[in-house]
Specification:
The complex is a heterodimer of chains A (313) and B (451).
Chain A: H1 11-45, E1 48-50, E2 55-57, H2 61-68, H3 70-103, H4 108-116, H5 123-133, H6 140-147, H7 162-172, H8 175-186, H9 190-198, H10 203-231, H11 235-245, H12 267-277, H13 281-312
Antiparallel strand pairs in A: 1-2
Helix pairs in contact in A: 1-13, 2-13, 3-7, 3-8, 3-10, 3-12, 5-11, 8-10, 10-13, 12-13
Chain B: H1 3-20, H2 42-45, E1 50-55, H3 61-77, E2 81-86, H4 91-99, E3 106-109, H5 115-121, H6 128-133, H7 143-147, E4 158-170, H8 171-174, H9 183-193, E5 195-196, E6 202-207, H10 218-221, H11 242-258, H12 260-268, E7 285-291, H13 293-300, E8 309-312, E9 329-335, H14 343-355, H15 357-367, E10 370-371, H16 374-377, H17 386-396, H18 409-425, H19 431-448
Classes of the chains: A mainly alpha (313), B alpha/beta (451).
Membrane topology (chain A): Multi-pass membrane protein
Protein name (chain A): Multiple sugar transport system permease protein
Domain ABC transmembrane type-1 (chain A): 76-302
Chain lengths: 313, 451
């Protein structure tokens, strides 16, 4: 007869374990239903040909197709561009504006309102307005540039300028981030600056040695949320693309996302199009897993970098 | 840990539930009582009272009112059946509702792109048995309309109203010229009617050849050269059909005559197709490819209603004069989704809306779309001015074609359009190799979709 070498946990501990599970159960159920189950389903469906109604196991075919699809590579690179350029630009811009606003003595309230207002504009309306403003032929921006002898670019009509144009749109709507940074900056104790000033530290030194370390949790928060937002970037890119192309859906005519030349095709858009326009849900699940992996990788890298920086400081 | 197997069992149960969701056997066509004949009187009363839900994509006041009137004709025949309408519905909402087990009784779609997928997956019920049961002769529908409403022998939708595509021309800008009948005449006239500023900027375009301009999609232009999308086995015929190359070379020559950059600058200055200022209304373009519905838009636009314009079939390839008079057609489709609560009642409504002459004429007169049956097209009450009659003739032409149903319809159009954008800007050096690549993309996707 085999005798277990493990001693049974004391009855008191077992009781506490059950109680802990009971208290944790809302969270556990939430995670199971809204995270684990969808994730496992996505993996499951990614091995199938699935049009929402019929299901057929096809092994790795969806993966093979996805990794040979030029549109996947193109959309992944576009998404990567947004992460690498748009997120830092938005964080730096918001931080810069917040720094200025923190120093403004009079009229600060009005300026804060002016910078915050664009973030209240509905996303679709703001994007449509931006495309009209930047229309190369009829938009006022290029007309104003022309007064100074500058030939404005084709903005959303040019593959080279389309993503920078989206970045401008992101800067314009950075009001929320500006307010978060402003609150963080105003929270830094004044006496630290006064002491540094007495020690002869200049503005840059004060910013590097006091401001940055003090607001680093907020910086980390904005960088991580910014990356996650950029990885999921969808509405602005799709609306800008559709409006700038002038294309429409009518009988025998469909809108191809990513105008111009696929430069505004982001991975979430490609995923949506594959799933809900092509009805290739299995393939869309592969895209979703790719998106998940990319978002996780970026988030982990950022968290690691920030924790390293925190240890160093 | 006792929790782990419990959690695993829970997840498995959830997975199984998800995998089988929406697969319960719904009532199917023929499972419910049906009248012995359609129409008023005791036969119609044979169906028990019910409330039907109909989802459609119409959204403007004029459209929804017209649709309500057409449905009112049905409820007059079947007073025991109440119909509730839900407007502005898109295809993905219909599919999601069917998948979620909350399908409407009847659903209509503006595009034909999803018909193949709906038929293949069984999302819409096959109407063949009830069509046969009721003795409906589908020969009253033009061949193209029959083609875009079925897939691989399954007729899961019926054509409600159709769109036909032709040429609109501004009589003042034409300066007495007759509309072109061949592509070379179109080229010649375009060059004659185009007006440029001193710096070469286009002021008035004769005809815009860009595939990116409004309705100039490959589907709409393919019929002018008799181009074929698919081989009999469903694979792409784009690379192997010389007609596409003929169209593309003609188009590129005209783009190059304008100068790609010049043409793009002009195109981008024109705004949206559905915007308040349409370039054709404003006299910026002399000839455009458009659908019959543009007639109604011109008539309803206070600034454009006095526009002196004419309509004609699209010009065709010089070596295929027999194609003249034909064009592209597609249109609104309607069917009974899987899971409809009252499928037999739903079929009676679909039948009424798609085969009842009075109903089709009423709807066509209100929406100014082409009615889909021969009887409705020849009905004396159908408003038939010259400009609208052009599209009735195009629709009825035996060589008028459509984009055949494919499970990858949207993908295939995207793949070709993406290539065409590169082609017209001059980024494609080898046309044959480029078209072969389009074929490959379409065929690879077809294989993945189990075609």
């Amino acid at each position: 007869m085999m005798v277990s070498t493990h001693a049974a946990p004391p009855r008191r501990w077992r009781g506490e374990g059950v109680r802990a599970l009971l208290w944790l159960s809302p969270w556990i159920i939430g995670v199971a239903v809204f995270f684990v189950y969808p994730l496992l389903s996505t993996v499951y469906f990614s091995f199938h040909r699935y049009d929402l109604f019929t299901l057929e196991f096809i092994g790795l075919d969806n993966y093979r197709y996805a990794f040979s699809d030029v549109r996947v590579l193109q959309s992944a690179l576009n998404t990567l561009w947004l992460v690498v350029f748009m997120v830092p630009a938005q964080v730096l811009f918001a931080l810069g504006v917040a720094q200025l606003l923190a120093k403004v003595k009079s009229g600060g309230g009005l300026l804060r309102t002016i910078f915050y207002l664009p973030s209240l504009v509905p996303t679709v309306a703001g994007t449509v307005a931006f495309v009209y403003l930047l229309n190369p032929a009829t938009g006022p921006v290029n007309q104003v540039l022309a007064w100074f002898g500058i030939t404005g670019p084709d903005w959303f009509g040019s593959a080279a300028w389309a993503k920078p144009s989206l970045t401008l749109l992101a800067l314009w709507g950075a009001g929320n981030l500006i307010m978060i940074f402003l609150a963080a900056l105003l929270d830094v104790p004044r006496h630290l600056y006064e002491a540094a000033e007495i020690d002869g530290a200049g503005a840059w030194r004060q910013f590097r040695s006091i401001t940055l370390p003090m607001i680093s949790p907020v910086l980390m928060f904005s960088a991580v949320t910014g990356v996650i937002y950029a990885v999921q970037y969808f509405t602005q890119a799709m609306i800008a693309s559709r409006v700038a192309s002038g294309a429409t859906d009518s009988a025998g005519s469909t809108f191809t996302p990513g105008y111009p030349d696929g430069s505004l095709l982001t991975l979430p858009q490609h995923l949506f199009h594959t799933g809900f326009r092509d009805w290739s849900m299995g393939l869309a699940c592969v895209h979703a897993l790719l998106l998940f992996a990319v978002a996780m990788a970026f988030t982990l890298i950022l968290l690691r970098q920030f924790s390293k920086a925190e240890v160093a400081s | 840990m006792r929790f782990a197997p419990l959690a695993a069992a829970g997840l498995l149960a959830l997975s199984l539930t998800a995998c089988t969701a929406g697969k319960e056997a719904p009532p199917s066509l023929g499972a419910q009582p049906r009248p012995t004949a359609s129409g008023t009187g005791p036969a119609a009363a044979a169906l028990p009272a019910a409330t039907l839900e109909l989802w459609h994509g119409f959204s403007t006041d004029v459209e929804t009112k017209a649709f309500e009137e057409a449905v009112a004709g049905f409820t007059k025949k079947f007073p025991q059946i109440k119909v509730t309408l839900k407007k502005g519905i898109q295809d993905d909402q219909i599919t999601q509702a069917i998948r979620g087990g909350k399908a409407p009784d009847v659903a209509a779609s503006f595009t034909t792109d999803n018909v193949a997928q709906w038929c293949k997956s069984g999302a819409f019920q096959d109407l063949t048995p009830v069509i046969r049961q009721d003795g409906i002769d589908l020969g009253v529908l033009p061949a193209a309309s029959r083609a875009y409403t079925e897939f691989e022998g399954k007729r899961c939708t019926m054509p409600l109203l159709a769109d036909a595509y032709g040429l609109y021309y501004n009589k003042a800008l034409m300066k007495g010229e007759q509309p072109p009948k061949t592509l070379s005449e179109l080229t010649e006239l375009t060059k004659k009617l185009t007006v440029r500023d001193a710096d070469g900027t286009i002021k008035v375009a004769g005809f815009i050849p860009s595939f990116q301009y409004y309705e100039n999609s490959p589907s709409h232009l393919g019929p002018v050269v008799g181009a074929k999308w698919y081989n009999d086995d469903g694979t792409s015929a784009i690379g192997s059909d010389p007609a596409w190359k003929q169209l593309l070379r003609w188009q590129k020559d005209l783009v190059d005559w304008y100068g790609y950059d010049n043409l793009e600058k002009f195109r981008k200055s024109l705004g949206e197709e559905w915007g308040a200022e349409h370039p054709f209304f404003e006299g910026k373009v002399a000839m455009i490819l458009d659908g019959e519905w543009r007639n109604a838009m011109i008539a309803n636009d206070p600034d454009a209603k006095d526009l002196d314009y004419g309509t004609a079939p699209l010009p065709v390839a010089d070596d295929k004069p027999d194609l003249y008079g034909s064009g592209f057609t597609a249109g609104t489709v309607i069917g009974v989704p899987k899971g409809a609560a009252h499928p037999q009642h739903a079929w009676e409504l679909v039948k009424h809306l798609t085969t009842d002459t009075e109903s089709l004429v009423t709807l066509s007169n209100a929406l100014r779309n082409v009615p889909t049956t021969k009887a409705a097209m020849e009905h004396p009450r159908l408003a038939r001015d010259d400009n609208f009659a052009t599209f009735l003739d195009i629709f009825a032409h035996p060589k008028t074609s459509t984009l055949p149903a494919s499970v990858n319809s949207v993908f295939n159009q995207d793949a070709f359009s993406t290539f065409l954008t590169q082609w017209e800007k001059g980024a494609v050096k080898d046309l044959d190799a480029g078209l072969a690549e389009v074929d490959k993309r379409i065929n690879d996707k077809l294989k993945l979709s189990g075609g």
